[in-house]
Amino acid sequence: MQSDCSATPTSSSTLSSPPSPFANPTTYHDNFLERIFIRLFSQKMANALGAKSFGPGYNGFVELSKLIMVGRSPKQQQALVAIVLQSLMPAPVLWGIRTFFSPTQWVCEWNAWFATQLFEWLVGPCDVTAVDIKLEDGSVRTQMSNVHIRKCRYLEQSSCVGLCVNMCKVPTQTFFTEKFGIPLTMTPNFEDLSCDMAFGQAAPPLEQEAVYSQPCFATECATAVPKASTCPNVRA
Predict the structure, then answer these.
(1) Which of 46, 109, 118, 160 is at a distance of 20 to 30 A from 58, taking alpha carbons?
(2) What does the DSSP assignment read for 70-107?
(3) Is the dihedral of CA 176, 199, 221, 60 positive or negative?
(4) d(CA 200, CA 105)
(5) Would you say 97 and 180 are in contact if contact means Cβ atoms under 8 Å apart?
(6) For 163-187, how does the pLDDT look when each residue is reduced to its tens digit (9 = 90+)?
(7) Which alpha helices (DSSP H) does the chain contain, by range?
């Protein structure tokens, strides 16, 4: 009698590790307005660093951000980026937004939409998606205030966990929470380089997040410590 069962060979692809998110670099074609934003942000960073010159385009912007790491602790890096962010927005505007706009569902959703329109040059294509926000009374509210960054341009080009945390995640969360009065939690995904920005959600202490235990991109980052269990520039 012939058996109905047959062995299914194991595909070698199922045993292999997932492809590197850096395997197929994304190509960007910045338009005139985007190049202006890149130049403005780069100039603000150069001013904060005391740098007299910097390279062109987005590459120059990333190289400037790497200079912020040199000789500075994570807290010092975050503080310097905070100065840059504040210099981009007039103080009276920040005061007005913080004073007259509480972080209601509408305000958080509006900020999420605005972020997708304004920051694509910085982080790449992104979409507004739903997110469950934990409110102060313990209840949960679903709202369209999450910005899903499909593949972060900055993380892909810098290839550095420390830069992601100290130049982007922590300063941006602090800036929106303290200067705009709108809580924000950013959750990077180091497996596919995506990221979620949840407006209206207060960020937990960094030590409680998965990013605090994230190792370096050992084969990609020029300053990586391959044998370290976590990125030293996050905990230093």
Answers:
(1) 109
(2) TT--HHHHHHHHHHHHHHTS-HHHHHHHHHH----HHH
(3) negative
(4) 8
(5) yes
(6) 999 999 999 999 999 999 999 999 9
(7) 12-15, 32-49, 57-69, 74-87, 91-100, 105-118, 120-123, 153-158, 161-163, 170-174, 232-235
Residues 183, 201 contacting (CB under 8 angstroms): yes
Mean pLDDT in the chain? 89
Q: pLDDT tier at 19 (50, 70, 90 boundaries)?
A: confident
The alpha carbon dihedral of 116, 202, 179, 171 has a sign of negative
Helix (H, G, I), strand (E, B) or coil at 2: coil
- Longest alpha-carbon distance in the chain: 86
What are the structure tokens assigned to 164, written together?
């992601």
190-228 pLDDT, tens digit each: 999 999 999 999 999 999 999 999 999 988 888 888 888
* Structural contact between residues 145 and 111, judged by C-beta atoms closer than 8 angstroms: yes
- Indicate left, alpha or beta for 53 from its phi (over 0: left) and psi (-120 to 50: alpha): beta
Residue 14 reports pLDDT greater than 50: no
Question: Which 3 state secondary structure label does DSSP give 5?
Answer: coil
Question: What is the pairing mode between strands 126-134 and 184-188?
Answer: unpaired
Q: Please choose, from the candidates 129, 102, 104, the residue with its C-alpha nearest in 3D space to the C-alpha of residue 115.
A: 129
Residue type, 210: A
Residue 195 β-bridge partners: 149, 188
The identity of residue 114, as a single letter, is: F
Separate counts of helices (H) and strands (E) for the chain? 11, 4
